[in-house]
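Structural prep section.
Before we set up the soaks we want a predicted structure of the protein with zinc ion in place, mainly to decide which crystallisation condition to try first. Input record follows.
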Amino acid sequence: MATTARPGRTEAIPRTMRAMVLHEPGRPLELSELPVPEPAAGEVLVRVRACGLCRTDLHVVDGELADPKLPLVPGHQVVGDVVAAGPRAGRFAVGERVGVPWLGRTCGECRFCRSDRENLCDRPRFTGYGIDGGFAELTVADERFCFPISAEYPDLNAAPLLCAGLIGYRSLRMAGDAERLGLYGFGAAAHIVLQLARHEGRHVFAFTRAGDEDAQSLAVGLGAEWAGDSQAPPPEPLDAAIVFAPVGELVPAALAAVEKGGIVVCGGIHMSDIPSFPYRLLWEERVVRSVANLTRRDGEEFFALAPQVPVRTEVTSMPLAQAGEALERLRAGEVRGALVLIP
Ligand SMILES: [Zn+2]
Ligand SMILES: [Zn+2]
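Run finished without errors. Recording the tokens verbatim:
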């Protein structure tokens, strides 16, 4: 895969950088001047060009995920240029463009890591949660977990691929070979998954917040067969559904919409409680499962596939200093496609 280098862009590394910092969950992010981190062994220092926003960032900032690093620089959909490498880091050249995803590091030793399930590692470090992420001008990352970014994608459009795309891709794989696929919650991830699913010849049904005509028209424009309100029944039964919205009520709704043997995949890291539901919704071998994190193999497969589709991302950009405002827009669902911060 072609990657973009920006030769001649080698730059003097500043001593300090602007970053949006979370000091305590539930408090607004603060624009701060921080020392530029030193890349440790195996790490690269990355000049951030764009960083996507994800629902997970909201869960971290709101305190819905336990024990974040504090103070923390959130952000785990980073696209940037390598500006320096730490000791024994040689995978990327200075000037090369990389993406930094949610999976920041794994232990490599636990039973999950040893059985190709590093997404379930017992001692993982997640970008923008357990280690500082991309709501900053610069960041460091373990080079083994970075991805080269295909030249087809401008920085802004590449950013949402790093989580919405990757987790979306893994969720789609977990949905099996479903011909008729429902997507609940039509934001950054769903608008990418829809394109992958259409590319594979599937029929897609998009479920949005009631009356969200903007999201519904985006879905239909990208090839959805039907788009409607999330509590409405689809025009025909589904073979699988992926729930991206963090709304527990959607799980029984999706189960009611899938055919015998259907699969409901929960793609988010956090969800409100799932209300109790009658066993008949699960009966006939219907399955409910979640998707956790990503493996590097997911990333390799997805980044090989995306330019072939080609996946196009619909993005709205906002300046880094407005990260707080951007998170509120995401919370309110006032975003078409994906939101991306520019330092
Ligand atoms: Zn994410
Ligand atoms: Zn592990």
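Observations: The mean pLDDT is 95.
Flagged for discussion at group meeting.
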